[in-house]
Amino acid sequence: MMDAQCSSCALNPLTDSGLLAREGSADATVVLAGNPNVGKTSVFNALTGLRQHTGNWPGKTVLQARGFYPHRDKRIEVVDLPGTYSLSARSPEEEVARDAICFGNPDVTVVVVDATALERNLNLVLQIAEVSDRIVVCVNLLDEARRKHVWIDLKELALELGLPVVGTVALARRGILELKDAIDQIVSGQLSPSPKKPVYSEDVEAAIVGIVPSIQEINHTSLPDRWIALRILEGDDSILGKLEQFYRRDDATMTEQAMAS
Amino acid sequence: MTHAPYQDRFTVLREVAKRQKSRGMVDRIVQRLYGRAEEISEHTVSVQPGGIAWRWDDWADRIVTSRVWGVASMIAILGAILWVTIAGANVPSALLADGLFWIEAQLTVLFESLGSPAWLHGFLVLGVYRGLAWVIAVMLPPMAIFFPLFTFLEDLGYLPRVAFNLDRLFQRAGGHGKQALTMAMGFGCNAAGIVATRIIESPRERMLAILTNNFMPCNGRWPTLITMATLFIGGAVIVGQTTVAAAALVALVLIGVFMTLGVSWALTKTMLRGLPSAFTLELPPYRRPQLGRIFVRAFIDRTLKVLWRAIIVAAPAGGITWILGNVFVGDKALLYHASGALDGFGHALGLDGIILMAFILGLPANEIVMPIMIMGYLGSGAMLELDSLSQLKTLLVDQNGWTWLTAVCVMLFSLLHYPCGTTIYTIYKETLSVKWSTLSAIIPLVIAIAVCFAVAQLVRALGLV
Q1: Among B26, B154, B290, whose Cβ lies nearest the Cβ of A234?
Q2: Domain count, chain B
Q3: Exposed site from A151, A201, B24, B173, fewest CB < 10 Å?
Q4: Which of B10, B12, B178 lies at the smallest CB-CB distance from A244?
Q5: Is the Cβ of A217 closer than 8 Å to some Cβ of chain B?
Q6: Would you say residue B454 lies in a domain?
Q7: What distances in angstroms separate CA A261 from CA A4, A252, A258, B274, one per listed residue?
Q8: From the CA of A4, how many Å to the nearest CA of chain B?
Q9: Would strands A65-71 and A74-80 be described as parallel, antiparallel, or unpaired?
Q10: pLDDT tens for residues B118-175?
Q11: What residues 87-116 of chain A have any CB closer than 8 A to a CB of chain B?
Q12: 8 A C-beta contact, residue A43 and residue A138
């Protein structure tokens, strides 16, 4: 019930403190996530034609920027997020990214990865794939990888991850059209990716099964119960604070409705 | 107290979370994803043999991040940038001044032929236009050279190396190595530097970075500093003027760094006690900067933006200063009543009343400090045709009693004084604390006054001026 409202509610970080004012409505919202310094802002600029300041150092983007692009009769909103190594939000700017990905209900999450450091970047892809299925992996900086004689089998990568994969050189605008197409396929429902979710060791899986029923009762977000269970098992109680916020608001709404009827 | 049933669920789950902290399950969860990432990359990534062998960036990193050469190369790079800026800005500055003051002469002719009253000509041409012309001639060329060079370093990936080099010093001062990155941002704009402190995880160290960002001269202050260094410090020697001026600016930046470290250390010992937290700073690969893009971006996003800010504030300020300089109360113009009141205090700091007033009126934007200063002096009624930088020196030295000490104190005061209004507001937005926002202005102000006072008194006592 609340899911539909959440794209415009106060808890949704996508709607506040953006650099650009929301102009009109969009048919879909895409967020750009990725490790710091992989060229997210360059991908953002290439997609939207805007000129957000880029720079070659981690932490350049601390606020989210938003822009729009038209594609196949749709108006797509893009949000450029600060870089993050994980979804555990250890700093305010990582929290911006985490909240947008986890609680913002984006239509598509584009995870930008650095082709020259794929292994390290995949960790975030795998984490986000536990939260959402609607993901496009954008392997950026392919030119630099080539200079370093690093080759990436994009087809194989797509198979391994169970996600659409697009190779780009954002500064030269190469691969951007393909990226827009991949986004469009998910937005229009032609493609529903089913990422391979990792199975954990027996004790972890058993612990998940143990607490999932309790989580089910209180989870009023679109987040998978299994993912929440994993965060709790990691000792991250900040996620519970977030869940409580969502729960309380729903609770208040239901009480109001009950009183009204 | 009523107790909603759902709260039990949260309590139970919180207990589970708390219990996990001491167990090895966290590691097993994290390891699973790392293992999977490794597996996938083994299947998909191939590196051609011999491909990685030639790496000029490794070679470059060995120098710019070495213990011995790291800091030295950093100072050399900064010096080189400032040298190019000063050497390159002289000629276009003179040309621009010539052109703009030629237009002023034409405007005067036009006003006279239209028979406009003297006060209108005075207000519009000698006040507003002349103020603007000065801002453009003095500020535009150095900015148009300095900002692209700086953006080049940013795109190349040099800034994190600076942070790497300074990390040990910051650790010793109780700060965070990433503070160097936020300082580098402050070099462009202190307000941007304040926002950039979000990359520092620990609140204590973030506050240190916020309170000290002011000590990095921003866009708005560079033109003042460059002009002062060129006219008075480079101008004081006969050979190697550009080199001397650039060296003076490097020294000034080092004073700023020293102040940052000193204040961080002092705050760590007093108001912001605590131990520096460890962090991993990634050195990103060098990337080939996009030259065309850099030029356009540095010019439009930085140069024109700063200039525009200076112009929209300087235009009305020019008019107002002209009015203040030409409306007489008793035997003196209003302007000189005000600056006269500040003269004594200003003199003690090696400055004068007009300079202090310019710094006070310049609170909204540092860009307008020098324009106000110049207009304050020009408003003296002795209308001097200013058509070159050397004329500016004549105005300051011969007509208003400046010495090299005045210039040094202006540079020091500009470096240290207080962040601009925008930055203070940004600090408030980021900290939501009136106390810390106020301190962010008071601490630098006290230091600026103390340093200028000490320098001025010392130099005078030694009879150097």
Answers
A1: B26
A2: 1
A3: B24
A4: B10
A5: yes
A6: yes
A7: 22, 14, 5, 56
A8: 23
A9: antiparallel
A10: 888 877 887 778 777 777 877 788 888 888 888 888 888 888 888 888 888 888 888 8
A11: 90-93, 116
A12: yes
* Range 188-227 of B in CB contact (< 8 A) with A: 195-196, 198-201
Contact A201 B155 (CB under 8 A): no
Token representation of residue B273: 């006690």
Which tens digits make up the pLDDT trace of B78-124?
Answer: 899 888 988 888 788 888 888 888 898 898 899 889 888 888 887 78
Residues 136-165 of A with CB under 8 A from B: 144, 148-154, 156-157, 160-161
Please give the angle made by the CA atoms of B81, B215 and A94, to the nearest 5 degrees.
90
Integer CA distances (angstroms), B103 to B97, B384, B392, B394, in order: 10, 16, 18, 22
A54 touches chain B (CB under 8 A): yes
Q: Which residues of A touch B34 (CB under 8 A)?
A: 123
State which H helix or E strand residue B455 sits in.
Answer: helix B434-461
**Would you say residue B61 has pLDDT above 50?**
yes
CA atoms lying within 13 Å on the CB side of residue A202: 0
Element containing residue B460 per DSSP (H, E): helix B434-461
Q: Does the reported pTM lie above 0.90?
A: no
Across the interface, whether the CB atoms of A203 and B25 are under 8 A apart is answered: yes
Domain range for B194: 63-276+287-461
CB A84 within 8 A of CB A98: yes
Domains of chain A: 2-187 (3.40.50.300), 202-260 (no CATH)
Residue B2 lies in a domain: no
